[in-house]
């Protein structure tokens, strides 16, 4: 009962009561009537005569429990039994072997009893002729009754019923006394927090514990027995001590519950890896490595969002990836109708009307749980605020539990084998498989690689047939991520919820600062101002708590040129510009690292700028605008080139994520042919330098105009009055008088 067996200890038939005992439990006294009608009272399988010996007290035996050589013997016995029953060793009269049926086994002329007697006689004669061979085939002691017993076992249990119970005898294991068991667990707890020890060292500790706790007379098994028992109980000792302690701690705190994913969006796995293909950055055309971030829906195995970044992803990148999961993917100009939204129940025109653009055939939904690794980017306060805004739970995977995030890891491997390996610039899985010059083989830019991955996901991955990931309710069916998402829509419906454009601002990091009456707000050592602050200058916000009387501003770390302010009264979002930006013209892209470099340079020079407009020349000088265009790439190191390319890529990503177009569009990139004409890569370094020079000229012009607001009238040029009158014309009397007075 209750999964364990009880033993009858005392029976009182005159009182109709019985007492049951079990090891490790208190005696249980109950009535015979209650015991007979108890729902969990059943006969023990250890005493049932209708079960074979190999299945008593254990799970039923199966053919897979036998070793390969024993399976061959079972197949041979089955052939003999089928020949006795049908006359054919295959058991089918339509597939006879040569000479079948033999005279002694012809079912038309013999009975079953005769065939059994003939088979027993045949096997005895074969055993007498070759005793060793018959003993090896386990056919040396087969009688008429043995054939009947085999036949009954075959009818009841299949082919495994022919096997001897001795082949599947009970595995009793090794006899470990309670004292040795106690010592093993004590040594395990002790060595788990110490440096790594060998099996011999653990054996000495076991002997020491038993001797000091239970006395020297207590027997201890041999070293080999202790080694095998330790491996069976605690696993292999090949892991590092640090990981073993982590796994033990997780095992102690584990609840034993398994998460069953049964709808899209229930669990989304998020992970980042280095792209195994070298690509060309869009500024100098240098070969660089980029990071690929994937968001995979665990139920449908749909890649619902991805990002390429020149550096490892930050908290803002993670927030934007989660935003992409909730947003429909827009159609691109070169995508056909076969890649458009095509899910039942929700027409593509309806989705396009809600989204404001054509929607590609990629699922979008609000994630419920996001599973990540233990990177620091997923543990900061910004990501904690992001999960509150989108209403999801961001949970890291358990330590040493690869099954928590195996789906996205497998997706990385599948994309590598299906797409990345055939692209030029592929680096291989390690240094040994690396090509001679993957940097020289790189021909795709970051933008081209992003477009290729997006096209491949929508067109190939989402329509690729499942292998081992078919749903449990139709394991043999043909399903793809798109078809499985469509089936879930039919079963549970689809919530057409597209987040508003303001979600971008809500997912940015926040800063709580005071508003200066004249200069605006200072965030990260830069001043921002705009007309949206006019109604709140010299006024407190009225907020309580830690940020008392301060206002909340949102800022994208990828583009320090702007911050965003939500009006407390209307709740409209406004963009505030950096006060150092010129009114006209463009400024090269820069990031927070460049701002810190500018401030260090200002302190080094001993400058005391009265406004951020005085920082612009220093910024442009550090970016490289003062270097001639023809010499700029040659004057920069490879690290500086990557830094410039990173700044341009981050600003471009921030502009693409903003719900409104960027205030200043980037100039179109020119295409420059590579060496030998084989590689065509857009090089934007010339445009970047010219943009910086134009910004310097615009700043100088603004300062001159500010210094001289009213321009004086220039004097007339020399000889202008003489050129106005012809020299051959006779002067009038008035003119003669004027001329004499002049002399």
Report on this model:
This protein has 743 residues and is of the alpha+beta class. 37% of the residues lie in helices and 11% in strands. It is built from 24 helices and 18 strands. The strands form five sheets. Strands 11-14-15-16-13-12 form a six-stranded antiparallel β-sheet, with no helix packed on it. A hairpin with a 6-residue loop joins β15 and β16 (573-578). The radius of gyration is 42 Å and the shape is elongated. The protein starts with 6 loop residues before the first strand and ends with a helix.
Proportion of residues in helical segments:
25-40%
- Taking the alpha carbons of the first and last residues, their distance comes to 141 Å
- Continuous helix count: 24
Per DSSP, what share of the residues sits in E-state strands of 2 or more residues?
5-15%
Largest sheet geometry: 6 strands, antiparallel
Give keywords:
alpha+beta; five-stranded mixed β-sheet; 37% helix; six-stranded antiparallel β-sheet
How is this structure best summarized?
The protein is an alpha+beta fold. The protein is built from 24 helices and 18 strands.
Detail the topology: elements first, then pairings.
Elements lengths: L6 E6 L4 E5 L6 E4 H5 L31 H19 L25 H18 L1 H6 L7 H14 L20 H14 L7 H16 L8 H12 L6 H13 L13 E8 L4 E2 L6 E2 L2 E7 L5 E7 L5 H12 L21 H8 L13 E4 L8 H10 L2 E4 L9 H13 L19 H4 L4 H14 L21 H12 L10 H4 L3 E4 L7 E3 L2 E4 L21 E5 L6 E5 L6 E6 L13 H14 L10 H8 L8 H4 L2 H20 L13 E3 L6 E3 L2 H23 L12 H5 L8 H10 L1
Parallel strand pairs: 4-9, 9-10
Antiparallel strand pairs: 1-2, 2-3, 4-7, 5-6, 7-8, 11-14, 12-13, 13-16, 14-15, 15-16, 17-18
Helix pairs in contact: 6-7, 10-12, 18-19, 19-22
